[in-house]
Specification:
10 helices, single chain, alpha/beta, 11 strands, 283 residues
Length: 283
C-alpha cells in the first residue's frame, strides 16, 4: 500500500508490502551519487530519476528561477507516485527545499542534500568545503558552518566549472577545475567536504589533487550515503543490501521519459544502474 495522496501528517499511514519507489531530482547527473547509494541499500527499490536538461545548469539562475525549475522537475517525478523524493542537489536544496516541501508534503516526503559539515567538524582538524560558486559563501552554508563548525578552521572553496565539467564527462576540464580548486585549498587541510553532488563522482581525483605527500590521508565527506539512509528512515524502511536486484528505472528529462545521458555511463555510479529494467508503466 502506498502513502495516502492527501491528508495531514497525523492521518498519514504507510504500510509497505511491496517494493519501495524513490525519486531523485537534479538539473543533471549529480543525482547519480545518491541514486547509487539508494541502489546499494535497497537493490529492490524502483527508481525515478528526474533531470532538467532543458534548464541546466541551475547554479547561475536566480533563486526564483531555480525554484520554478525545481518545482517543475519535482512535479514530473511526483506524477510517478514515488514514496519519497530526494533533492540530489545542494544548490537546489539551498534555494528550493522550502518551496518543494510546501508543495509536496506531507503526501510526499522530500529529503534535501546538506553538505557534510557536521561530521567534518567532528574530526577536529582544519577542513575545506568545495562547492559551486552559487553555494560558496551563501547564508545557508555560512549558517551550517556557524552551527556545526565553531572553533574549527574552515575554508570555503568555490569550484568554478567543476560541476559543468563533470556533467559533460570532459576529462580535460575536470582536471583543470580540480587543479584550480586544489590551489585554493590550504596545505594544512585534512578533510574536504564535497558540497556539490557532482563532485562525489570524481572524489578520488579530488583526493589525489589535495593529498599532501607528507600529510595524513585526506578524508572526503560526501552526502550521498546519509541522504539515502535518511530517505529510508523517513519511510520507516530498512536497508536490505542483500535484497534481490529487481528494481526498475524511470528516467525523466525535463518531464519527458527518456534514458540516462551518455555521460552518466562514464562514471561507476551510472554504470551501476545499467542492469535496471525500464519501468513498464507509470504508476
Amino acid at each position: 500500500m502506498r502513502s495516502l495522496p492527501h491528508g495531514t501528517a497525523a492521518k498519514r499511514l504507510i504500510v509497505y508490502r511491496g517494493r519501495v519507489k524513490i525519486a531523485l531530482m537534479d538539473s543533471g547527473i549529480g543525482l547519480l551519487a545518491a541514486t547509487a547509494a539508494v541502489r546499494r541499500l535497497r537493490p529492490d527499490a524502483d527508481l525515478v530519476l528526474s533531470l532538467d536538461p532543458d534548464g541546466m545548469p541551475w547554479g547561475p539562475r536566480t533563486p526564483q528561477d531555480l525554484t520554478a525549475r525545481a518545482l517543475a522537475v519535482a512535479a514530473a517525478a511526483a506524477a510517478h507516485r514515488p514514496d519519497a523524493l530526494i533533492v540530489g542537489c545542494n544548490t537546489a536544496t539551498v534555494h528550493a527545499l522550502t518551496a518543494l516541501r510546501a508543495r509536496l508534503e506531507p503526501a510526499l516526503p522530500v529529503i534535501g542534500t546538506v553538505p557534510a559539515i557536521k561530521p567534518a567538524a567532528a574530526g577536529g582538524g582544519p577542513f575545506a568545503i568545495w562547492a559551486t560558486p552559487a553555494t560558496t559563501g551563501s547564508p545557508y552554508q555560512r549558517d551550517l558552518i556557524d552551527n556545526f563548525a565553531g572553533g574549527v578552521a574552515v575554508t570555503e572553496v568555490p569550484c568554478w566549472g567543476l560541476a559543468e565539467a563533470v556533467e559533460r564527462a570532459d576529462e580535460t576540464a575536470i582536471d583543470a577545475a580540480v587543479a584550480a580548486a586544489a590551489g585554493l585549498t590550504p596545505d594544512d587541510v585534512t578533510t574536504v567536504v564535497l558540497g556539490c553532488t557532482h563532485y562525489e563522482l570524481v572524489g578520488e581525483r579530488i583526493r589525489a589533487a589535495v593529498q599532501r605527500p607528507a600529510g595524513p590521508p585526506l578524508v572526503l565527506h560526501g552526502s550521498a550515503g546519509a541522504v539515502a539512509a535518511q530517505a529510508l528512515r523517513r519511510l520507516g524502511e530498512h536497508p536490505a543490501p542483500g535484497a534481490p536486484a529487481s528494481g526498475s528505472l524511470t528516467t525523466l528529462l525535463s518531464g519527458r521519459e527518456g534514458t540516462l545521458p551518455f555521460a552518466a555511463l562514464t562514471y561507476a555510479e551510472g554504470r551501476l544502474l545499467q542492469p535496471l529494467a525500464p519501468a513498464r508503466t507509470a504508476q
